[in-house]
Amino acid sequence: MTWPDTIAREMNAVAAELAEHPRPWESEGLVGVLDSIRESPDDVLFRLLVACREGDQLAGRVILCALAGKIVRMANRDPRADLQDYLGAVWEQIVTYPLHRRRSVAGNIALDALRLVKRGQTVDWVTLAEDAATGQPPTPSVEVRRLFHAARRDQVVDLRWLTTAEQVYISGLSPNEVSEQQGISAAAVRWRCRRVQAELARNIDHLWVAEELLAA
Description:
Layout: H1 5-20, H2 29-39, H3 41-53, H4 57-66, H5 68-76, H6 83-96, H7 105-119, H8 125-133, H9 142-154, H10 159-169, H11 175-182, H12 186-215
Helix pairs in contact: 1-4, 2-3, 3-4, 4-6, 5-6, 6-7, 7-12, 9-12, 10-12, 11-12
């Protein structure tokens, strides 16, 4: 993988710092630590988390380097956030990581960071509904499509309601057009859309995490 400049600079800086100021938790510099993480990820990452919690920020930066591939992949798949958003979210998880969670450390940090980023994102239902109401072509983002796909796959909402909402938000049909197709009232169409919005909002953490795991 060719690292983005931000990641490459950070890895070079961490390597230089370790070369100049060796730490008791490392041997053979950054490359050696990263190799040991690949061999025994939970044990080594946990030791680094403890060192970071005790005040050694370089240990936390090594964890950031170890998770660089995951960070870049998550950022590349997210059209509404960038690399800096994910770097910041991962760092926040590193410095606040609950030390009783000693298994699947890398996965926990990555998925908790994903939740943190996604929590700040909302679907622009208003614009999508306004487009449909005015006859404009729908402009759902890739993420909206992924969200509906995940909801259908995991059946977190009544599939009849979901189909109705997809016709409005994805296909761009008006509530009146959908009501004619489905044989229900326009008011029922709008009610179903509101229920789908509520259920997707309630399950959004689960849906995004499931999508991330499947895409990994």
